[in-house]
Amino acid sequence: MLRRYDASHEDISDLLADQPAYRSRQVWDGLHRRLAEPSDMTDLPLALRERLADALPPALAPVTASRSDDGATVKWLWELHDGARVETVLMHYDDRSTVCVSTQAGCAMACSFCATGQSGFERHMTVGEIVEQVVRAQREAGERRVSNVVFMGMGEPLANYDATWAAVERLHGAMGLSARHLTLSTVGLVPGIRRLATEDLPVNLAVSLHLADDARRDDLVPINRRYPLAVLAEACEEYLRAKGRRLSFEWALIDGVNDTDRDARQLAAYALPLRAHVNLIPLNPTPGYAVRGSAPQQVRWFRDRLRELGVNATVRQNRGTDIDAACGQLRAGHEATPVASPRRR
């Protein structure tokens, strides 16, 4: 069965072949501009609303929703039609509202500190399953417009490239979100970065770096064995030349693993030639996983050290720790089993 946001404009036109041509435009705009349920499209006859609701069911069934930070952070666990479960996080800030979406059920990248990576890979998400997360988040946000979408939830977006990029185009074209407010994250899939450089929309690129030393990054982020840091830097430079957008490096600070002076110097040497901004992420604690985030004073010291070295670095606000807001944590719940800490060298 076709799910609601997997339906293309042509699919809706076919479904409404017995209706005047303008009806398909009404429905398309109702879904993507007004973000309406079929039952709420009162500009349509009741019988047609009922037909649409039956023919185009939603893809996301809520399992649980958690709220934190006085309602400023909301996290959902959804179940898809085949039983796979994925997560979405909505975060309100003073100047914007951002939704973090998943692109895969599980993840095959096996990063050693990540709850999603340790759960294994189930399947790619569809275009509609990705887009519907934004729709649901905007409904929750109400009058506060969701202006930013980050593809940083469960999964590796560039490993599900076709559906991820089609979702980007849908969010930009049908829903009217600025490409400059859409950010794709990757652990370093070089072919995907190079492909992204050829696309028309100037989205933001964020690379989950976490270490700037090949030998140690091989352990923490195994895809580094295939695409080492020098190769990754070449692809990032290619993207910068093509798009002129700011490159960001994500750096989850792990106690004693990547928060030392050596790590700061290695990161600075890597980031400065690429003019990259560094987002420092205090690692959310994950029950069952033998890693610990850096202490707050160490986070501040690391940020200040990077700035001394000439790097533009900020600390990302830690949101939703009490509701397991790091990707994969809500789904993992109490089923997580301990894994080894990253090796320290």
Automatic annotation (TrEMBL):
Cofactor: record remark: Binds 1 [4Fe-4S] cluster. The cluster is coordinated with 3 cysteines and an exchangeable S-adenosyl-L-methionine.
Statement: the UniProt record of this protein carries the keyword S-adenosyl-L-methionine: yes
Pfam families reported in the protein's UniProt record: Radical_SAM (PF04055)
PROSITE patterns per the UniProt record, alphabetical: RADICAL_SAM
Binding site for S-adenosyl-L-methionine: G155, E156, S185, S208, L209, H210, N284
GO CC list: cytoplasm
GO process annotations (BP): rRNA base methylation; tRNA methylation
Cellular localization per UniProt: Cytoplasm
Catalytic activity: adenosine(37) in tRNA + 2 reduced [2Fe-2S]-[ferredoxin] + 2 S-adenosyl-L-methionine = 2-methyladenosine(37) in tRNA + 5'-deoxyadenosine + L-methionine + 2 oxidized [2Fe-2S]-[ferredoxin] + S-adenosyl-L-homocysteine; adenosine(2503) in 23S rRNA + 2 reduced [2Fe-2S]-[ferredoxin] + 2 S-adenosyl-L-methionine = 2-methyladenosine(2503) in 23S rRNA + 5'-deoxyadenosine + L-methionine + 2 oxidized [2Fe-2S]-[ferredoxin] + S-adenosyl-L-homocysteine
Residue sites binding [4Fe-4S] cluster per the record: C107, C111, C114
UniProt similarity note: Belongs to the radical SAM superfamily. RlmN family.
Function in brief: Specifically methylates position 2 of adenine 2503 in 23S rRNA and position 2 of adenine 37 in tRNAs.
Protein name, per record: Probable dual-specificity RNA methyltransferase RlmN
